[in-house]
Amino acid sequence: MASKKSSKTVAAKEDANSSDSIAQGNVNAILAAIGAQGDDLKKLIEDKMTALSVRLDALDATLVNLQSEQAGIKQKVVEIEGALNGTDLRLGAVEKSLNALREAGLKWSLRFPAKLTLHHNGRECTFESPEEAKKFVDNLSNDSA
After folding, report:
1. DSSP assignment string, 80-143
2. What is the pLDDT of residues 95-105, one digit of tens each?
3. Distance between CA 118 and CA 115 in Å, rounded?
């Protein structure tokens, strides 16, 4: 009986060693598969990071272009505001001259291209600047004084 027990023990040990070998083989196969998937995942992550980096570079370039355009637009706005202020000043001078003409009892009209025409004593006088008209009105005032 001892030999039967002994052979059963040896067989059980061999089965256990065999099972351990199979289990170790399975573990190694699983670890290899995980390692391969890990490499694939690492490659996928690297590819996505590269694609994102390219997109970020494109967005940075677009942002720089938009900022440059914005600066150009701001400069144009400043130029337009300056021109409008200058126009306001010139219109103020024209209004002043026209008020002086009204006060002097003169009829007036504006004709393109921006010429002032006065009618005085049956005579028509044309001026290209408010200053010329002011001189004329001043001379009328001096003549009547």
Report:
1. HHHHHHHHHHHHHHHHHHHHHHHHTT-EEEEETTTEEEEEETTEEEEESSHHHHHHHHHHHHHH
2. 888 888 888 88
3. 10
Q: In which order are the strands placed within the sheet that holds 123-127?
A: 107-111, 115-120, 123-127
Tell me phi and psi for residue 46, to 5 degrees. Answer: -60, -40
Chain centroid to CA 112: 40
DSSP per residue, 7-74 = HHHHHHHHHHHHHHHHHHHHHHHHHHHHHHHHHHHHHHHHHHHHHHHHHHHHHHHHHHHHHHHHHHHH
Reported pTM:
0.39
| Number of residues in the chain | 145
Q: Locate 27 and state its tokens.
A: 């573990």
